[in-house]
Amino acid sequence: MSQRNTFVRAMHDIGLAAWFGGSLAGAVAVNGAAADLPDRRMRLKVANAGWARWTPVNAAAIGMHLVGGTALLRANRDRVADQRGVAAQTAAKLVLTGAALAVTGYSRTLGKKLRAADGVPVEGGTTPAESTPPEIAHLQRQLDVCQWLIPALTGGISLLTALAGEQQRPGQQSSGMSRKLAQWLHRGA
After folding, report:
1. What is the pLDDT of residues 39-64, one digit of tens each?
2. Which residues, 6+ apart, have CB-to-CB distance to 131 below 8 Å?
3. HSE (CB half, 13 Å, CA atoms) of 38?
4. Summary count for the chain: helices (H), strands (E)
5. Which of 6, 45, 80, 147 could be 27's S-S partner, Cβ–Cβ 3.0 to 4.6 Å?
6. Best CA proximity match to 19, nearest among 130, 73, 100
7. Is 86 a domain residue?
8. How many domains does the chain have?
9. Which phi and psi angles does 125 have, rounded to 5°?
10. The domain containing residue 34 runs over which residues?
């Protein structure tokens, strides 16, 4: 039971940290800095340029997180099946990961559409101005919601990762598996 998975755990955790941190930094710093430009017609271009630089790094971080997570799930499959509470934590984490992937992908789609709108006057990367065309303003408002959902979802994944670490403590493993064994023996009797 004391198998070590240091490398894949690091892949999982570093990838998640970059996904969370980069998304939060982008929402706060990239879009915020673009809003500070005096020329409203340059704000979207600057925000788009910042996000374009982050996109390949984010994709690599997400891939690293997914590869690490898949390897950890495989390494811990017996614990997931046998230890009380681990399957529920794993299922919740998978749901949050799927939601974070979907919102991240949708954000990328919105970002591509906004990149085509360079030169449109805006207040910031996700904040329309009164003179912003309605279709661009709509895209910006959608992206504004997504930019905060991603760190919320990936933060939730991080919270469940912390719970998974607590579940791996020897006392948690033995009591969780003992309850599972007792249930199995009771059903067989």
Report:
1. 999 999 999 999 999 999 999 999 99
2. 121
3. 0
4. 7, 2
5. 147
6. 100
7. no
8. 1
9. -55, -35
10. 1-68+102-164
